[in-house]
Amino acid sequence: MNVRRRLISGSAIAAVTALGLGTLSACSDSSAASGDTGKFDVVASFYPMAYLAERIGGDHVHVTTLTSPGQEPHDLEISPRQIGGLERSDAVLYLKGLQPSVDKAVDQSPVKTKIDAATMTTLEEHGTEVGGHAAEHEGHDHAAENGKDPHIWLDPVRYAEVAQGVGRAFEKADPDHAADYKKNTATLVQQLDELNTDFSEGLAHTRSKVFITTHAAFGYLAERYGLTEEAISGLDPESEPSGARVRELQKLARADGVSTVFYETLVSDKTAKTVAGDGGLQTDVLDPIEGITKRSRGQDYLAVQRANLKALQSALGSK
Questions:
Q1: The pLDDT value given to residue 29
Q2: What digits encode the pLDDT tens for the residues 37-64?
Q3: What single string gives the DSSP state of each residue in 270-289?
């Protein structure tokens, strides 16, 4: 597989002040503080972890998420209120290496059940061989502190592995409801397996295998389905690309039959439009699903992933 991952570098997006405990649904009502709900209280670090907790926990869990909808998760700084909620919770579910302030708070927390998603699947080092080609590391703002790509949730297969690990952790920590956790996990894993099949079949025959993004989040997805991600290098998502890089990408687009420059939902489309500009390319959204907002093309992970699939099929010329 030909997977070229040029990673965004430059200054990180300005840190966003924590806005308190975000919510996902009725099961994650922030009006009830963590630890005081009469349910299995789970604090999740950001949306992909909260989604797993809610789907697997069902009616038995109360989930709060540390990252508010629309907030860039990597730059999260936890508030004292959130730290207090974390300390009163029954479990914390996070992805070690993605959010340094979360890692520090978890390390210092007395929470008995600490569930690290990064231990439940395989993460890849940046700068290692990926699909037979060296992946270049240029200091991507979203790279984990250990140098590994944290975007495991964008690969349905890896995400299913994490789901299974979370299910086992819930069963152990709350054995009274183990049977339900096991059942819910099996249902979610089946849905993720179906999503993987949809991606595999939907991207098997395309005119092009190369896509351009402003956010180098899709390396695992590209590797899984035999695609090549070209991310705009040397930039944070909202800065202007150099003239040389624009010309390079436009030349690549002509050579590889690229029609579209993708941008993400949490930042401006300015960079994508700059690159698309003179090359006569289109722009579209490829969502890294770091949070669900009113701008998201779907109300949950599965819906947004299927929107991503449709966007890729359109851009790559699915046959």
A1: 42
A2: 789 999 999 999 999 999 999 999 999 9
A3: HHHHHHHGGGT-EEEE----
What average pLDDT does the structure give for the chain?
83
User: pLDDT tens digits for 197-243?
Assistant: 999 999 999 999 999 998 788 999 999 999 999 988 544 455 567 78
Whether 283 and 269 have beta carbons less than 8 Å apart is answered as yes
168-198 residues labelled b (16+ CB within 10 A) or e (exposed): bbbbebbeebeebbeebbeebbebbeebbee
Both tokens of 122, joined, read 């395989």
| Helical H segments across the chain, by residue range | 47-57, 80-88, 100-108, 156-173, 178-202, 219-224, 243-256, 270-276, 301-316
Residue-wise DSSP of 76-109? -B--HHHHHHHHHSSEEEE-TTT-HHHHHHHHH-
Beta bridge partners of 125: 148
Structure tokens given for 319:
């046959």
Tabulate helix, strand, coil % of the chain (nearest 5). Answer: 45, 15, 45
- Tell me the CA end-to-end span of the chain in Å, nearest whole number: 19
- Residues 309 and 146: their CA atoms lie apart, in Å, by 29
Whole-angstrom distance, CA of residue 255 vs CA of residue 235: 23
Residue 213 — φ and ψ, nearest 5°?
-130, 155
290 in Cβ contact with 72 (< 8 Å): yes
**3-22 per-position pLDDT tens digit:** 443 333 333 333 333 333 34
Specify the residue for token string 């299927």.
Answer: 306
Task: Give the span between the Cα atoms of 44 and 51, in whole angstroms.
Answer: 9
Q: 71 pLDDT exceeds 60?
A: yes
Label residue 29 exposed, middle or buried (CB < 10 Å: 0-12, 13-18, 19+): middle
Contact in structure between 216 and 231 (CB atoms under 8 Å): yes
pLDDT, tens only, 167-188: 999 999 999 999 999 999 999 9
